[in-house]
Amino acid sequence: MSITYKGISISSLGDLETLNLIDFTEPELKEGEVLIKMECSTINPVDLLIAYGQFGPPVQPSILGLEGSGTVVKSGGGAHADSLLNKRVAVMHKGTWNEYMVAPAHSVYAIRDSISFEKAASLIVNPFTVGAIVEKIHEGNHKAIVMNAAASGLGKIMIRWGHKFGVDIVCLVRRQEQVDTLASLGAKYIINTSTENWKNDAKNICSELKVKIGFDCISGTATNDMIDLLEIGGIVYIYGTMANQPFTFNAAFLMLQLKRVEGLAMPIWLYQKDHEAREKISQFVQDNFEEVFRTEYASEVNLTGLKSALLAYQKSATNNKILVRIHTD
């Protein structure tokens, strides 16, 4: 007998007012798919991109939510899918803001008993993105990096990772309160980009540390600012588009200073890994979860309050990590 369940759908991409809690009927599972009873999810910047039709195919109406946790209650068959049956899991796939969701088994990761559903709701998107960033750092044997939006949840993970593994991080933020927050976490190099001489200060630090790699999740004019900070031959990886603007840069940086700009999309990076490699990433995250990869939530909502929470989140995402409780029974 199929399950009827509730979930969030948006009928007109780009208009958050068309978010609604509606009824769904369980679809038939294909081989390699699992059905997950969802317990918790969260709100990430990418969820806004999906809601605005700027990430993935612009399907209308569209289910939402990209990350969450729950229990696998049914398998469509196949060795990997069957191995997840009755397991507590974290998942990264569209539709986590539903009471039940169907996901391909390769997007699902078994979680340890020591990691709660609440914690596991944020086990993939930011931690695995950090994994992609760390891989680039290791490839170039870099000892120092620069990153913007450093007061974000991902930025805080990077700061903790830098402390543990000995990499200096030049943190770019936009407000004094964010400077104070990062200082309380032990960040050593913090630049407030709203101050008058911030770029000179940042250049001096980056020159002292010989920074040749940067990570930009804002794009727009921030990309050019970051390129300017790097040593000759440096590279900026764009892994987010918070500014929602085309990135701009001075072509002379590329022509005469041999600098580069590349994209870094964690889902694509992860898709290119085989099953064994993805499992190693998951185990590394879980091994270091409390010390490095944990996420603190500012508030929590259930499905009925998610629309209001998302409207508020689009105005201020920093220090506003929201836990979404799916099943409250």
TrEMBL record:
Is Glycoprotein tagged as a keyword? no
Q: Which UniProt keywords apply?
A: NADP, Oxidoreductase
Domain Enoyl reductase (ER) intervals: 14-310
Tell me which domain of life the UniProt entry assigns to the organism this sequence originates from: Eukaryota
List the GO molecular function terms.
NADPH binding; oxidoreductase activity, acting on NAD(P)H
Question: What InterPro entries does UniProt report for this protein, alphabetically?
Answer: ADH-like_C, ADH-like_N, ER, GroES-like_sf, NAD(P)-bd_dom_sf
- Which Pfam families would you find in this protein's record? ADH_N, ADH_zinc_N
This protein is called Enoyl reductase (ER) domain-containing protein
For whether the record's keyword set contains NADP, the answer is yes
Q: What's the source species' lineage?
A: Eukaryota, Sar, Alveolata, Ciliophora, Postciliodesmatophora
